[in-house]
Amino acid sequence: MFNGKAHTALRTLVESGQVAPDEAQRQRARMAERVLAESPTLKRHNFDEIANRDVARMLAAVDEACFAKGLHACIAERGAVLAACASSRMTSAGGKTVVGKPRHGGAWHIEVRLAVTPLFRSFRDDEPTGEREINVNGVRCEDRLTAALAVVEHEAMHVAEFLCYGTSACHKPPFQEAARRLFGHESHKHQLVSSWERAHVAFGLTPGCRVRFTFQGKPYEGIVNRVVKRATVLVPDPNGMPFSDGQTYTKFYVPLGALERLEDDT
Predict the structure, then answer these.
(1) Are 62 and 39 contained in the same domain?
(2) Which one, out of 39, 71, 172, 241, has a CA that is 20 to 30 A from the CA of 157?
(3) What is the spatial distance between Cα 91 and Cα 105, in angstroms, rounded to a whole number?
(4) Does 218 have pLDDT greater than 60?
(5) In angstroms, rounded to a whole number, what is the distance separating the alpha carbons of residues 223 and 12?
């Protein structure tokens, strides 16, 4: 656990700070405008690209508006490092906070990661999934920038809890209560468009469905096994790998738009 003047001030804010729900919404809107004005990358609220520095800007805006720069002060007091980045590797979580323990007397390293893949799957005018309401941590979001800020608020709460108590758990009541008071979060989960939802709504693909595709000019037919950024399709192959159903398959990783669903033989 961190100790010191900044730690005490941050802990007091985490345990007793409160913002009215309507003010939390206005505060988030002000942060969005600030980040948009400062960023050379973000061109609009429904941005098409985002840089690591943009996530750092969001984290700094949340720290200033919601924690009175308490995260920065506590990090400086401890001699730790706080970083932020946009991650394309996470495909289902909205974000993640990673704490690296110091080695050989070095500094603690805390990194806030914003998952951009779920953001880019959401708020799309060119696909049916763009028509539904998006909620992040119980906050209704009209665009990617608002959703990103709601995710960063959640991750900033993880940072604050770790700095105050040495641990953090968003499924526990203290985290959820503090996030509700400080950010107006009524949930600790996001409802961004999932890979399976996009596959089903936009392309008519479901687990186990039969599909046709072309690879290197040759046609194949197989079964959709998994969907992340692309679909994992299992094509029957006597020389392939054995699976739990007793059959052998070769795996192909295929863009969703390159798959044609086949009608079931029923």
Answers:
(1) yes
(2) 39
(3) 34
(4) yes
(5) 55
Q: Which amino acid is at 213?
A: F
Q: Are residues 205 and 243 in the same domain?
A: yes
**Mean confidence (pLDDT) of the chain:** 92
Helix, strand, or coil here: 15? Answer: helix
- Shared-domain flag, residues 104 and 225: no
d(CA 28, CA 46): 15
CB 231 within 8 A of CB 210: no
Taking only the tens place, the pLDDT of each residue in 58-85 is 999 999 999 999 999 999 998 899 999 9
Among 173, 193, 213, which residue terminates a domain? 193
pLDDT digits (tens, 9 = 90+) for 154-186: 999 999 999 999 999 999 999 999 999 999 999
Tokens standing for 113?
A: 């990661």
- Is residue 266 included in any domain, yes or no? no
pLDDT band at 266 (very low <50, low <70, confident <90, very high): very low
- Co-location of 139 and 10 in the same domain: yes
Look at the pTM and tell me if it is higher than 0.90: no
Same domain, 98 and 67: yes
b/e map of 177-186 (b: 16 or more CB within 10 Å)?
ebbbbbbbbe
Q: Does the structure show a pLDDT above 70 at 124?
A: yes
**Phi and psi torsions of 40, nearest 5°:** -85, -10
Helices (H), the chain: 5-16, 21-38, 52-67, 70-78, 116-121, 144-165, 173-183, 195-203
* Token reading at 253: 């990783």
Query: Measured between alpha carbons, how far is 226 from 233 in angstroms, rounded to an integer?
Result: 7
Integer CA distances (angstroms), 170 to 58, 140, 167, 185, 215, in order = 20, 19, 10, 12, 44
